[in-house]
Every structure is written in C-alpha cells, then in structure tokens.
Amino acid sequence: MSTRVDPQPITEDRPTVQIGRSIPRLESLEKVTGETEYIHHLRLPHMLYGKIFRSSVAHGRILKLDTRAARELPGVAAVITGADVCALIPEPYYGPAFHDQPVLAIDKVRYVGEPVAVALSEDPHLAEHAANLIEAEYEELPAVFDEVEAAAATDTFVHDALKPAGTFPDLKHLQGRTKTNVALDFSLRHNDAERGFEQADYIFEHVFRTPAAIHAAMEPIVAVGEPRGSSAVTIHTSSQSPSFVRTEVARLLGWPENHVRVRTAFLGGGFGAKLYIKLEALVAVLALLVKRPVKIALTMEEQFYTITKHATTVRMKSGVTKAGKVVARRCEAWWNGGAYADIGPRVTQKSGFTAAGPYDIENVSLDSYAVYTNLPPAGAFRGFGIPQLVWAYESHTDIIARELELDPLEFRRANILRNGRPQATGTIMRDTATVEVLDTLERAMDWKAPRDPGDGNVRRGRGVAIGFKACIAPTTSVAIVNIYGDGSCAVYCGTVDMGQGSDTAMAQIAAEVLGLDPRAISVIHPDTDVTPYDMATLGSRSTFHMGNAVRLAALDAREKLFIMAGKALGCDPGLLSAAGGCVRAPDGRQLSVGEVIKSGFLMQAGNLIGSGSFRPTYTSPSHGDGQSSDITPFWMVGAVGADVEVDMETGHVRVTRLVSVADVGTVINPAIVTRQLNGGAVMQLGLTMSEALRFDHGQVTNASLADYKIPGILDVPAEIFAEAAPGCQHSGPFGAKGAGETGTFAVSPAIANAIHDATGVRIYDLPLTPEVVYRALRAAQHNPLENEL
Amino acid sequence: MSTRVDPQPITEDRPTVQIGRSIPRLESLEKVTGETEYIHHLRLPHMLYGKIFRSSVAHGRILKLDTRAARELPGVAAVITGADVCALIPEPYYGPAFHDQPVLAIDKVRYVGEPVAVALSEDPHLAEHAANLIEAEYEELPAVFDEVEAAAATDTFVHDALKPAGTFPDLKHLQGRTKTNVALDFSLRHNDAERGFEQADYIFEHVFRTPAAIHAAMEPIVAVGEPRGSSAVTIHTSSQSPSFVRTEVARLLGWPENHVRVRTAFLGGGFGAKLYIKLEALVAVLALLVKRPVKIALTMEEQFYTITKHATTVRMKSGVTKAGKVVARRCEAWWNGGAYADIGPRVTQKSGFTAAGPYDIENVSLDSYAVYTNLPPAGAFRGFGIPQLVWAYESHTDIIARELELDPLEFRRANILRNGRPQATGTIMRDTATVEVLDTLERAMDWKAPRDPGDGNVRRGRGVAIGFKACIAPTTSVAIVNIYGDGSCAVYCGTVDMGQGSDTAMAQIAAEVLGLDPRAISVIHPDTDVTPYDMATLGSRSTFHMGNAVRLAALDAREKLFIMAGKALGCDPGLLSAAGGCVRAPDGRQLSVGEVIKSGFLMQAGNLIGSGSFRPTYTSPSHGDGQSSDITPFWMVGAVGADVEVDMETGHVRVTRLVSVADVGTVINPAIVTRQLNGGAVMQLGLTMSEALRFDHGQVTNASLADYKIPGILDVPAEIFAEAAPGCQHSGPFGAKGAGETGTFAVSPAIANAIHDATGVRIYDLPLTPEVVYRALRAAQHNPLENEL
Predict the structure, then answer these.
(1) For residue A346, what are the contacts with CB-CB under 8 A and spacing of at least 6?
(2) Within a 10 A sphere around the Cβ of B702, how many other Cβ atoms?
(3) Minimal-distance CA residue of chain B relative to A42
(4) What's the half-sphere exposure (Cβ side, CA atoms, 13 Å) at A338?
(5) Which residues of A are less than 8 Å from B490 in CB distance?
(6) CA neighbor of B132 nearest in space, from B58, B61, B52, B220
(7) Are A2-36+475-614 and A428-469+633-780 in the same CATH fold?
(8) How far apart are CA A449 and CA A666, in angstroms?
(9) Residues of A with catalytic annotation?
(10) Across the strands, what pairs with B639?
(11) Given this model, what pLDDT does residue A13 score?
(12) What is the mean pLDDT of residues B364-378?
C-alpha cells in the first residue's frame, strides 16, 4: 500500500494518454437502457415497507401517541415508535457534528414533519394507510423560525443543551452549553477590521438573504435495512457517505464497524441531501426490531421535511479607498440550521472563513453563526454555503464598483487574491487560478464589446461574479486496484457515482497509470465491507482525494506488474513501461497484462493487488484561530457571466446567456467537467430565479414540485457554456482538482448584477422571481434614490 | 502485497496464542438460529425459475424437440433449447479438463438425465409442469456403461473426438483424438516392476471395485443468473470454485473476467459436487437470453443425474519377499467418468500416481484410465479418487499380511514410506507423519490387547488401513486483510465455507498475526469482483494455500500497522508486537489497534490494507513422466481402525468402533479438525456399507434418499473418535496442512479387513451391504478355499 500524506508535485514528465480525453461515461449505455442499479429498485425477500408518521407541530411535547388503530389494521406487521427505538438503543441520537437528532422523536418534536412513528407492512400503500391512522397529541411550545431572531432568543430554545459529536475537537468546548440556539459561533480576525474601516475613504454596508431550498434529486432518499442475525446488519442506501453511515450506525448500536455493512449503487443525484444519516439509522433499527428487511423510500413531499439548504442572512461591510482598493471587510452570517444540526456547523465554519470573498483584503473580521430553529434541518447543499456567501459578497462588490464608477470586472481584478498572497486564514494561496479565471471570463464574455441596453419594455444588462471555496480537510481516501487473471482490472473505490461521472474519471486515472483502456476497467461501487474507506462524496473532494488514492493504488499494482513482467521479459522492472494494454521493454518486446499474469501464476489465475491511501495534512481552522497556515488542500474558483433581458412591465427576467469559467486544475475528462459546470449553473439558476421553501408557522406550504419550481428545459438559457481556465493543481492526480460545485458559486449575483445593469434596480434577497423584480422596479419608480443607493 | 512462491519454514519462535484453540465457529449462532445466508434462499425481483427437461435415453441423436405445448402454457416465460444457447455462444462447451459438455444438449444426448431444454416461469411449479410438457424424439445409439468394457470398446464411442481444455499442458497431445473412450491414460513407471516380480517370493493379484455414488450435500446445487445489461452478468451460486466459474463463463461468452461477477454464500456441504461448472453456465445463458434473473435449484433426484463419484475397477498385483518386503507393485485403475469428463482426468492422474499406496516399494508400475461411458458425469468427490484406490491397495495389503501370517499393522509399518525416501514419482517425502500415524493408531486401538472373537452367531473382528494423498499443485490463493477505522478487521478470502469451518480457521490465522481475537474478525465471502483469486475450495488445499495467503496478508497489514504505531509511540516499528488487540512497545506502553488508526488518520477513518499471494512451486506430474522431483506441496496421511460385529446369519455388519488418525500438521482448531475427521469417516462409512447408484440401461433406479441409503444417526458407531498424530508441515501456516479429506481414506478397507478378521471372508466390491456379506459368507461355506485367498 502506498500512503502519501504530504502531497508533492506528481504530474509526470511524459505526456498523458487518458487524461484530458472526453471518453463517454462508462455507465451511459446502462443508464439509457434502464439497466442501471439503483437502491430504489431493490426488493428483498420478506421485505417490509415503512411509512413515516410525522409531527404536525413545529415545537411540542408529545403527550400521547395512539398507534392502536394502525397496529390493528390487517396486513400491518408493526408500528414502531421512539420508545421501541430506545429499547434497542438507550441514546438513539445521531449526527455528524452534534448528536442531537433522534432516530424517531422522543418526548418532544422540534419541527413540522419530524418522524414520530413508522408503520410497517409488506404493502407500501397499506403502510401509508396505517401511518395515517396514527394519532398524536402535543403540548405546543413556543417556536423560533428566523435565524437572526433565534440566535438572539433568550427564552425559546430548540434544544435544552448542545451535544457536540466529539469527532471535531473544535466543537468540544460547546458540550452541554444551555440556553442558546447558536450551535456554533465561528469567528475569524485577520489584522484589524475596525482600523481598516477608519483608513477607508468609503464605507459600504448591506444585508443579503437567501431562502431555504431543497436538493430535488431525481432519485428520492431511500434505504433498506437487512438484518443479518441479531448482531449484524446490512444497509443498502442511496448515500453519498457509506463510510460515515457505517461508523455512525455502529456507534449507535455499540457494535464494531465490521458488524455493519453499508452498500450503495448509482445515485440519481445527491447534491448533499444524501450525506450522513438520513434514513439509514431508522431502517437499521426497524430491521433489527422486526427481524425482517425494511425499506423506506421518501416521497418528493417528504424530502421537503428531511433536509434543506440553509436560509441565510449575511451582513457585509467594506471599507474602500478612493483608488478602489478594499482595505477592510466585516461579514456576519446567520445560518438557519433548522431543528437538527446535521452538518450545518461545518457549513457555518467552512464557508465562514471565506466569507470575505476571493479578494486580497488587509483587514478582515468574520462571524458566522449556526442557528437552531424549529424548521426542517438544513445540511450540505452543493456549494456547502458558498453560493449564499457569494450572493452577498458579489452583490456587495458590484454595488461598490458601480458606486465608484469602476468597471465591475476591473474592480474585481484589482482586488483579486493572487497566488503567493495570504487568504484571511493566513493560508498562502497556491495553484489557484483566480486571475486566469477572470481573464478567461472576460474573453469568453467579450466583456468590452459594445452592448445593447435595450429600450422601452425590454432592458438588457450584463453582470459578472466570482467565488471561491476551500476543500474540506483533512480527509482520507483509500483505494484498491485489482488486476485479475486475464489482465482485466477493477478499481475498488468508495466514491459514490451520483451522476458526476466519478467512475469514469477514476477509470481514466487508473488506466493512465496502467496503460489500459479506461473502458476496460470496472469500478466496484461502495460496499463498506470490501471497498476501502472514503470520507464521503462531497465538497468536490473526490477527484483530488480519491483520484490520488486510485493513482497510488494503480502505481502500487503497476510496480508488482513490472516485477512480474521483468522476470518474464528478463528485464529490469525499472526500465519497463505500460501502454496499449501491454508491458513494454525498451527493446520493443512486450507482453499483454494478461500474459504477464499467466507468466507469473502459470495459468489464468491470481491477482495483482495495489492499494493506495491518501490524506493531505491540511488542518481545519479551529474556533477563533485564523492563523492556521494550511487551511485547504486546494482552492476552487468559479466565475459566471450573465446576460439578461428584463421585462420592465412584468418583472420577468430572461437569462439569455450564462457563461461559467472555473479553475479545475488539469481536466481529466473535458466533456464531463463541462457538463458538471453547466449542470451546477442550471441548478443554481433555479435557486436564483424561483426556488424557495415557503413556511407558515413552520409548515412547508409548497412541498411539491408543482408549487416549488425547479428549472425546466425552457428555463435553460439559449446560450450556456462553460470553460476551464488554465490551471494545474500540482498536488492533484495529474494536476486535477474538484469541479462538482464550482459551477454554482457565482450564478446568483452575476444575474442580479446583470439585472441591476439593465434596470438600475438592486435586489438583496433571493429568489429573483418576477414578483420580486416587479416590486423592486415599482419601488424604484416611487423612490428612485433608495434603490440606487 | 507479500508474494511467496518458495515456502520456507515459517513457524515462529514465540508460542502461538490463537493456533491450537478450539474456539467455536464464527457462524454457529447464525446457523442454529436459521439466519445464515445460502444462495438457495435468494430471490431477486422479476426472477424466473427454470426447470430442466432431461434426456430419457443413454445415448441418442435428437430427432425432434417439441416445446410448443410448454411455451403455450399460460405463465411460461420461455422455453430454451440448445439451439437458443448456440445463438448466444457458437461453441457452448465447457469443462475444467475437456471442453466437452454442452450448456444444453446439442444434436446428441449422452446419458439418461442430460439437460435438453429448460422451461422458465415466475412460478417454479408451473415451470416444472411446462418441462413435463416438452417432448423429444431420439434415434437411440449403442451405449457403453462399464469402465473396463468402455475403455476397450472399438465401435461404440461417447464422443467423436477429444477436446482437451488447453489449460493443462499435459492433456494437449490428446486434442482431436478419435475412436476412443479413454479421455486420459496416465502411466508411471518407477524402476522396473516386471523385474521386481521376478525377484519376489510371492505374487498376489486381485481386482477390487467401487460403485458410483453421490455427494448428497444437504443444500442442493443451486445457481441464480442475474443479467447486468447485455454485457455483464452476476452469478450467485453454491459453488466451491467461484474463481473458476468466472473464468470459464467469461471464456464461454468471450468476455473479459471483469464482466462476470460470481458470488457465493455459505454452502450446505459441497464434497466436490459443487466444483467447476454445474448450473452456472446454464443460468448465465438463460438470464442473458431472457434478460431477467433466472434461478435453478436441483431437486435431490436431479442431483443423481448431475455429478457422481467415479465407479472404479482396480487391479492390484504385488511381489513380496519371504521377509515380508513388498518389492514390486503394479496397479491398473479404470475410472468410470460418465458422459462428460468434468475433472475426471485429473482424478485419474492425481490419484493415479499414488495408487501403490504409502509404501516404500522399489519397483512400481501404474496405469490409470479416465473412461467415458453413457452414465451421469463423475467428478471430484471428497478424497478425489483416493478412497477408491485405498479400498484396493489396503484390502490387497491386508490379504498379503494375513496370507504371510504377519500382523497387518506390523506388515504396514515394515513397508511404510518414511521421510527422506522417494515416492513412486521420485518426490522425496518430507514432513509426512506416516510412522507417527501408524504408531498413534496402534496406541489408540490398543492393537496388541487380547481380543474377543465372538462366537456362534456374532463374530467380532478388527481391521486397520492407511492411505495417503498428495495436494493439487501448483495452485494460487490470494487474500486481503483490511483493518477498518475502529480497528475491527476483515479477511477477504475466496475460500468457500461449506461447513468445514474455514472462516474460523482463517480468522484464527489472521488473529494470530495481528494479536486480535479471532471472533472479532469478519470473513468476507467469495465475490470475484472483490475477494481475490482462489483456485477453488477442494482437495484439502485451503488451510495450507489460503491459510498461507491470509497469513502473508495479515503480516503485510501488520507491517503497516507497526509503522503507524511506531510514529504514535515514538518507537522503532521493528520492536513492536501485537497482542490482546493492542500494539505494544518494549517498555509496556500500548495502543489499541483502533487508537493506532486514529493516530494515523486523525479520526476514525482510513484502512490498513494488506495483501498476500501464495503459490507453491510444485509441479504436476506430466504424462508418462514420473521423475518430477516435487509433486505436491504436502502429503496427507490418514489411517483408520475398525472393530466390527458380523451377524453370521443375516450378513449384517455393525461397526462398533471407528478410530481415525491423521497427519494434519499443526492443528489450527482441534475441535473443528476432529469433527472434520469424524465427519469424513461417517461419510465414507455410508459409502462402505450401503451407498451405490444402481443403473438399468443407464437409468438410475434408486435416485432418491429413500432408495439410496446414506448414514443416519443410528448408523454411526457407538464409539467413534479421531486423533491428530504429531506432525508439522513446515511450509504451512504455523505448520498446518489440510484435513478435509483425510478422514475418508482408509475407512472402507479397515472395515472389510475387520470383517475378514471376524469371519475369514474377503469382499472385493463395495458396498458391504448385508446381502453382499451374506452371499460371501454363504459362498465361503460352499467353497471355503476360494474365499480364504
């Protein structure tokens, strides 16, 4: 096993063959013919379906839970409540950051939609009918919904005390803290922001908001628990984090990890919704209680109650000199985490430390608050908080540029954070193509070309924005490469292919090392008993982390292959090369990989097994300490340019062109990367233009895709394209870095900035629905100064 | 990955902790609570059940196959014939030694019961009904049934030409040979047998026979084919040889191995019946043709038509001096292979070269013939031909001893093959406890104690016998040991646990190396995509081969563990030791394995992955070449002593005591080894006393467990025990060698020799049913001289 924890430049001298090739995805044929495996399709013998009975109040004490009618319904196998769960697990609370979320509600409910009981039947419709027969009586308690109000609350608390998970040392000091809804208060000071403001010529200050939203993956959240006796369980789940599920369910049950097997298949989208524990603890507990396999698949409506994107309130304040230099910035961000922390505190912190934006600012003050409210839990969502912050800082930046009558792109370039300079955490920027991204965007947009501002009813405008993001650190990926007896090959890889094309990328990386055709390599999907550990498929970490692990594993296997081939060819292994499915000696003699194995094992038999483990040494910023020198293994940079047309009578905005430019390092598969960037942009377009959860006393009032509008094909801009800026992450596999989220960063402010460019109207809160734009246009007509700032 | 091909002594200096411990089997609780996974229980969504329509003639040309009525039966999904198979695979012939067996009959049938067509339905009963509606018309051809007659036949041939598989170089010369039923004629000459006979004072010559029999595993042969698109397939099968199934099905389909995934679960017994291809090619083809999962589970009756134990005729001739030294031996063995070779030619050859027995004989001549007949195919059966040969040579040896009025045990000891002496192949004996086994048996039997010969109607007698066996060579086993983030651990192992306790033994070996509790180690069952290659679970090879691979993999993982622990403890890794779940420094400081991993990966994450590959360099004796110096990685030696009571009026024989003594090297788990030996002895007791397939023109006439008697609890001797003789296989893991077959070797002749001791009657053909004994007693009364010789 090759282990590497201190990344060194690892790009090779020779030109690559498989890297940079747009080979079709390995699974495409299976997908279009409907043969792809999804957990949603899984049926096991004797399996029961579970339907969840949910809380109808936002905050309340459970006075009575009547399951008799449900239990007595013929065909109902069981009805399980929190009390049953507690009989199996005395403290059944889970969560990646805080152990605050019960498998089923115990004593209290904390949001409308919280799971309270489950009805089980072989017939899912019967289970649903039974769930509808369950009755609960609550003593309603005062509730908090707004993140700023909840943070300041002095008498209404979602939880009695904070229960940090213990896995993050920087949360330990919160243990047992009471009388607060603030799960985490992250702050960072870089030099002295107050002194910076004193030195500035201008001060700008604005507040921006984003609403709660949902991930809306095509495949709903689904999990199947399968008991293996009474001391082992298999969980089949559409999870982005099988390794975490294993560790957490093992912790809940008090079992060693090798008693819990977690496997996934392809995912029909994840976007962060399928991270950590969603249904997995519940189905595992149900399966162990009833001693039968149990499946729960959420309806689309139920997903609105399960996990959301954080609603945010962000206050931005900047001090700027007459020369257009930003010298101080203060940001305060409140994250509406809902009733259970999930990974929210990490969103608060990981995003928090970049809240000043990708700018070289001498004095920075950042405060970021993870806040409990009586709403559905918020968690990871593609971008991990960055789009909410970019919405704030890039709207804010644009306001400043326009106020100072500077070209918005030039203003950004003048203040941009360049390689060699320290970010607010003190980390020196490296391999981060901020300048190249802006340059590429400028060219791609033909930014300086004359524009048609429109006239009369239709006004045209153009906007840009740029965002950046650190990668989660430090995390581990481990991979195995197994060359079989006939020379065919498999990569064992814990990365979950949820549509992002990771299987193909990993096959290309292994193929590059082994001189094989990537289409000949099979990728073994996550199964925690056999595929090695991977922290999770999240935060654009897989290409970099798992890509490095796969590369190391392939190198390990290749070394063994060369030793075996060296014997067969009578040649120093160090002189051999791998190409075209063969191992070649310098004199041109060659053996196919299968022939090498046969020479070593004397028949079509045996394996050559390589393993690789990768963990960068970067450190997470601890509470209140902004001086860690290495905060991330790499930075992602994404910029967007948008052209819009605004209907001045209706407020309807049409995005006519959407251009994404990203620093993804070396591109492994250009077609996949381009689609990732465009896919991210379209997803964020929906969150920009229409998507928002609406609540009435904590009750979601638009919990269906009929009332909650995600982009359809007609919403996609006529002109949409993505481009990778020149870049190379020297510590990445063949120079690559992540690309999964970058497309989302800058879409919202680019469009809002374009609307402002078209209309002179500034909008501070997402989404930019026709009604919002219409009202802003009307307000500006009535009070032009206010909106011009 | 550690690779070792030249075994060196590897027993360690320190005393072992886990080796030699009778820990309960890891799976016992699951088994007694009915929770164990068997493929027989597997149901997949949309799965069809297949029922096989079989030939009713022993040899015939298929004139017409009418499947219309079956196809038109409502609920029948499809009826598949050989023609359909040929549309998918032009040459659908499989087999480990010869590519002679069609997936479904093509043009011809060659035995009664041969699969001709398959009816498929979601309802297995409907599929059976449909199969009964299929009609076939045959042109009957002359058939051959007896192995000696078939070998000599000049006009009736089962196959037109021989088609060796090509995997065994020593079979290549047979390619295309016509007009013969002899698939393989193995011969070996050691010095000059004819000259030896000339030097001898006495010549003895007898012919011994054994009948066809079945394995009668509790779990029937079963397989499920599951298509994954049109270019990949998963086969779930109760197979002893998942790696072979993968290679062979991939070859049939013309696919690389990584398109074929073969997985097994626990097996309810195997005994050789579940090796190579049984239903796997058929269900894979069916699944690909109908694009749905297909399951076929044989009934007990169908297993009589699927795979059998070779019936044999063995002629033994010995030249002996007055001093009681055997100086020459000639053996001829005819193996009734049935209509398809399966692994029969290997049985013929692997057993053939030991046909002279474990004796130090100067001049040896061996001929062994694998013969095609029009009977169900014969294949591997626990003992791999050895019990048939031991029946001959140990009956023969006993006759000689008694004729020369020598103590049978002393006569054997005087002639026994000792370490340092050459076996007939030229291989010098090493680490083989022949003398110790005889000594232990003598003590265990209290052989020299006075005996009660009985009187009147009940006569008592006592017999001994000894046999030996080489292990298949060269073969490969590969293993992975994966230590998870919490320090729990798994062994990935292609060995199939079919009741022999291999999971437990492998866990003990890994635990010994890693200082863990074996009960804390999980063993991952074979899945060819993830568990590494293993040649097969057969021939008592697993403890030695896979045991060595697991040991090497565990050492590889331990090395990584020590490097990580060395950093954490600030200690040279070379000074660390593993014990009690911890890694210990010489100064007594220690960390649990989980703590070491956390120290290295900074959280409960990551893996330490070790892999090990083991292949001894021993060579297989090639045709006609008895001079290979290393024929086997180790020898197994098994002796049995039996006390019997014979009812002189009815011929009924009661075995009152059955003692097994074996050389199994170091014992890993004494309780498991003892049960293996006793289990083997009871299985062979059935084959000795009652089991035999009866045929009428090729039709099995007793194809049910009502008519074919296997031992019940009342047939087990009142006194039965097993003992391991002192021994150590220095090249084995901690000194161990195989124990799966040894208990079967010597049971039959020990009992026959005891019957002779009791009655003076010698029986030459198995089984020793009351009728056979009765007839022999009556014949002896009428013609005493004939039977006394």
Answers:
(1) A96, A97, A168, A384, A472
(2) 15
(3) B45
(4) 33
(5) 258, 529
(6) B52
(7) yes
(8) 30
(9) 741
(10) B466, B661
(11) 56
(12) 97
Q: Which two tokens mark A577? A: 């090369």
- List CB contacts (< 8 A) between B611 and chain A: 609, 611
Distance separating alpha carbons of residues B235 and B250, to the nearest angstrom: 11
Question: Given its phi and psi angles, is residue B689 left (phi above 0), alpha (psi -120 to 50 degrees) or beta?
Answer: alpha
Question: HSE-up of A583 (CA within 13 Å, CB side)?
Answer: 28
Residues 579-638 of A with CB under 8 A from B: 601-611, 613, 615
Residue B721 · residue B659 · CB < 8 Å = yes
Q: Using the beta-carbon criterion (under 8 Å), do B167 and A603 form an inter-chain contact?
A: yes
Of A257, A474, A478, the CB nearest to B609: A478
Residue B488, min C-alpha distance to chain A (Å): 6
This model of the complex carries an ipTM of 0.90
- CATH topology classification for B41-143+219-303: Aldehyde Oxidoreductase; domain 3 (3.90.1170)
Instruction: Specify whether the CB–CB gap between B660 and B743 falls below 8 A.
Output: yes
Count other Cβ atoms within 10 Å, centred on residue B524: 20
Contacts of A524 (CB under 8 A, 6+ apart): A490, A491, A492, A493, A530, A531, B529, B530
Give Cβ neighbours of residue A449 (< 8 Å, ≥ 6 apart).
none
**Residue B624, pLDDT above cutoff 50:** no
Sequence-distant (≥ 6) Cβ neighbours of residue A406 within 8 angstroms: A324, A414
What's the pTM value of the predicted model, to 2 decimals? 0.93
Catalytic residue among B114, B147, B512, B741: B741
Q: Domain residue spans in chain B?
A: 2-36+475-614, 41-143+219-303, 428-469+633-780
State the nearest Cα–Cα gap between A711 and chain B, in angstroms: 32
Between strands B135-140 and B326-336, the pairing is: unpaired
Please tell me which of the candidates A476, A601, A609 has its beta carbon nearest to residue B611: A609
| From B41, B256, B560, residue closest to A1, measured CB to CB | B560
What is the Cα–Cα distance from A320 to A203, expressed in whole angstroms? 6
Calculate helix-pair angle for A434-445, A408-415, nearest 10 degrees: 170
Fold of A428-469+633-780: Aldehyde Oxidoreductase; domain 4 (3.30.365)
CA A590 to chain centre: 45
N-to-C CA span, chain A: 61
Which phi and psi angles does A150 have, rounded to 5°?
Answer: -65, -40
Cα distance between residue A710 and residue A215, in whole Å: 10
Instruction: Give the model's pLDDT for residue B456.
Output: 84
Mutate to test the interface with A, among B39, B248, B519, B529 (most CBs of A within 10 A): B529
Q: What percent of chain B has pLDDT over 90?
A: 90
| CATH T-level fold of B2-36+475-614 | Aldehyde Oxidoreductase; domain 4 (3.30.365)
pLDDT at B629: 52
Which DSSP string corresponds to A41-82?
G---TT-EEEEEEE-SSSSEEEEEEE-HHHHHSTTEEEEEEH
**A–B interface: beta-carbon pairs under 8 A:** 154
Rounded Cα distance between B708 and A415, Å, is 91
Regions of chain A with pLDDT less than 50:
1, 4-11, 620-628, 787-789
| Tokens matching residue B103 | 């997936």
Q: Is A68 on the interface with B (CB under 8 A)?
A: no
The residue of chain B nearest to residue A30, with distances taken between CA atoms, is B229
Nearest to A229 by CA among B524, B25, B33: B33
Rounded to a whole number of angstroms, the distance from the CA of A484 to the nearest CA of chain B is: 7
pLDDT in tens, A645-699: 999 999 999 999 999 999 999 999 999 999 999 999 999 999 999 999 999 999 9
Size (chain A), residues: 789
